[in-house]
TrEMBL record:
The lineage of its organism: Bacteria, Bacillati, Actinomycetota, Actinomycetes, Micrococcales. Signal peptide: none annotated. InterPro entries: PDZ (IPR001478), PDZ_6 (IPR041489), PDZ_sf (IPR036034), Pept_M50_Zn (IPR004387), Peptidase_M50 (IPR008915). It is a multi-pass membrane protein. This is Site-2 protease family protein. Its main location: membrane. Gene3D superfamilies: 2.30.42.10. Belongs to the peptidase M50B family. GO terms for molecular function: peptidase activity. GO terms for biological process: proteolysis. Residues 145-228 form the PDZ domain. Keywords: Hydrolase, Membrane, Metalloprotease, Protease, Transmembrane, Transmembrane helix, Zinc. It comes from Cellulosimicrobium composti.
Length: 436
């Protein structure tokens, strides 16, 4: 059942994300007068379609993409262009021009996409990625502001009975000869909420944790709220070796790769966590972190793909922050559905996954190469720059950019993406990323 739920939620979320992406292209195109002959979500055989006005709307069998057919994407060959030459790529360019021209109805040449101004072309082509970004922002706001994010509180979850030799990611259990913890000695109990430490009120875990770590070997008063009553305790944090954590949450290591530790106060309890609204600002910051992180992954995509392939076929461990295929995203969705978490936590997990997917669609489609949206944006900017230079120099206005000449690049890019996708799918099947 978890598998069915996870895959169903993932497929529906993917289809909706793709559909909204294509709407982002279609709406401004129609607004600018371009005839949109088809709006399709998916590839392959058509499962359902209906024509409304001049546009056919439909769903196809393979939900791994979509498209809107904008009439007149490629202009005819420029006047004075050399005749066709033999060769595969030359034929590709010619076929793209012919197919684009055949779609234009007599008397509707002005409605061809290539006749739009450069700024309007940019708006149309950026409409899809920007729609994905907006979806990601909305989903992140729903999770962070509406549902809330797990936040560590000052309420005690468990009291550790002793002081371990070291507080590290690998060692935190008690040994037979370890002394009693200050928390246990002071009578701290699970469910107590610490409201003041050393005479200073504390409202967050960061405040309390910092105060504890800085009070090693000092006897301090502690006020807790227990069953609606305030109880005063006294405890003496003991110094222990604690691993140093960087600002980004990663552990600091020395030149030999060993964790760096420092003495810090320790009392011996684990806090509880509850969902709290993070606010709009932190939600937007989280989206920006996702965008910048995705940019970093795509910028190093060849290395990430090579690492995934090496782990898949060499038996190594996959990087949990590495790149995954559509299969890997589906595996994450199944893992969320199969978890023992509360329903609200699972819902938040699904929404966060879909937000990350839309961020990936936003960033990936901005790569400045055809057939991706970024490639069309670059061509539009090139066209606009040429026209600006001609206007400044008093020259005749250049015609539309001959985008069809870039079709060989689109073909090469298509096969590269197909190969990358195949490698990542194999990696996710043979050696999937472990979330825990």
């Amino acid at each position: 059942m978890a598998w069915v739920i996870g895959i169903a939620v993932f497929v529906v979320g993917l289809v909706v994300s793709i559909g909204l992406h294509e709407i982002g292209h279609m709406v401004p195109a129609k607004r600018f007068g371009v005839r949109v002959s088809q709006y399709m979500v998916g590839f392959g055989p058509t499962l359902w379609s209906r024509t409304k006005g001049e546009t056919e709307y439909g769903l196809k069998a393979v939900p791994l993409g979509g498209y809107v057919r904008l009439v007149g994407m490629y202009p005819p060959a420029p006047a004075g262009a050399r005749p066709r030459r033999n060769g595969f790529f030359s034929q590709v360019v010619a076929d793209a021009r012919d197919a684009s021209t055949e779609e234009i109805r007599p008397g509707e040449e002005h409605r061809a996409f290539y006749n739009l101004s450069a700024p309007k072309k940019v708006v149309v082509m950026l409409g899809g990625p920007v729609m994905n970004l907006l979806v990601a922002v909305v989903l992140t706001l729903v999770v962070a502001v509406g549902i809330g994010v797990p936040t560590v509180t000052t309420t005690v979850g468990n009291v550790t009975p002793c002081v371990p030799a070291a507080v590290t990611a690998e060692q935190s259990e008690c040994g037979a000869t370890d002394p009693q913890s200050p928390a246990a000695a002071a009578g701290l109990e699970a469910g107590d909420t610490i409201v003041a430490f050393d005479g200073v009120p504390v409202d967050s875990w960061d405040e309390l944790s910092g105060a504890i770590q800085g009070a090693a070997d000092e006897t301090v008063p502690v006020v807790v709220e227990r069953d609606g009553q305030r109880v005063e305790l006294t405890m003496t944090p003991v110094p222990v070796a604690r691993q140093v954590v960087a600002a980004d949450g990663t552990l600091v290591v020395d030149a030999a790769g060993e964790p760096v530790t420092e003495p810090a106060g320790y009392v011996g309890f684990t806090p509880t966590a509850e969902r709290r609204s993070a606010g709009v600002g932190p939600a937007l910051k989280l989206t920006w972190q996702q965008v910048s992180g995705t940019v970093g992954i795509i910028a190093t995509l060849p290395v990430k793909v090579a690492d995934a392939a090496s782990a898949a076929f060499g038996g190594g461990e996959r990087d949990p922050n590495g790149v995954v295929s559509i299969v890997g995203v589906g595996q994450i969705a199944v893992a969320i559905a199969d978890s023992d978490n509360a329903v609200v936590t699972q819902v938040a997990g699904f929404l966060s996954l879909l937000a990350a997917l839309n961020v990936a669609l936003f960033v990936f489609n901005l790569i400045p190469l055809l057939p991706l949206d970024g490639g069309h944006v670059v061509n539009a900017l090139y066209e606009g720059a040429k026209r600006t230079v001609a206007r400044v120099r008093g020259l005749p206005r250049p015609g539309p950019a001959d985008v069809a000449r870039m079709m060989p690049v689109a073909y090469v890019m298509f096969f590269v993406l197909l190969g990358v996708g195949a490698v990542l799918i194999l990696a996710d099947v043979l050696n999937p990323i472990r979330l825990t």
